[in-house]
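Late entry, evening session. Most of the bench is empty. Finally got around to the prediction I had been postponing all week. Sequence below, unchanged from the version circulated by S.P.
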Amino acid sequence: MLEWQFTLLLLSNGVLIGLMYALIALGFVLVYKATDAVNFAQGEFVMIAGFVVAGCLGVWGVPLWLAVPLALGSMVAFGFVLERVMLRKLIGRPVIAVVMATIGLASILRGIGPFTIFSGTKPLPLPVSDEPFVLGPLFIPPIQLTGGLISLAFLAGFSWFFLKSRNGVAMRAVADNQQVAMAMGIDVERYFGLAWAMTGVVSALGGILWGNMLGVDVNLALVGFKVFPVVILGGLDSIPGAIIGGLIVGIVENVAAGYVDPYVGGGTKDFAPYVLMILALMIRPYGIFGKRIIERI
């Protein structure tokens, strides 16, 4: 394979993986837009969704056409219940309270997820061929192509929701100032619940796609940490930023693995996004499309 063909292959795979990262990053953006706080349990949401689908398929014998809606419904219900039971008490409190609550939630979910469903790595088979599509020098895995297309569809849908719909504008108002939003008659509690339910949908889709690629176990939650550089690069409150950040991270990962790994023995794919994140924080800490906030004292 010629060098330009090898580079094109790395770039194409990076783009598809980046779109799948962007789908998970959308969960961070949804919560931040509604609550002005970062959900550090996003990776655990993806893990739980993967557990539900893999459990339905492999343990309880539920067909895929029923397992997927069950996972979507379960994660929506989980988001609503979580907001009602734990996070609603934090409305109006400092943002750090929500952050610490989600960190604690992440530890709890990582501990009880395998205990309540199953232990060990379980497959999550999907009706997608393992044979790659061959387009000239490109070898495109069907699951990556499927994941990229699904990610694009949902990212476009949520972009329209926040820019054009009444509910989306209200969620943005809640994120700007909860107290003022309540004074203007906006039901803050309702939009908190809606944001977490939408995050559940994104997590369910991510759990299905990444669970098929990696297998389902407690390590699936690490996808959330892999995605964190994406939202830092793009901006925590920007859906276009999630897309651009995902593409950048996906391409950097693949190019690093292809060109740097042979000289260092591997592993650059794991830390390259975090190097990128640190550089972004030094140069543009609010992200490429993030909202710049100036506080005057």
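Two things to note before I forget:
Residues 3-35 form the longest helix (33 residues).
The longest strand covers residues 133-135.
Will write this up properly tomorrow.
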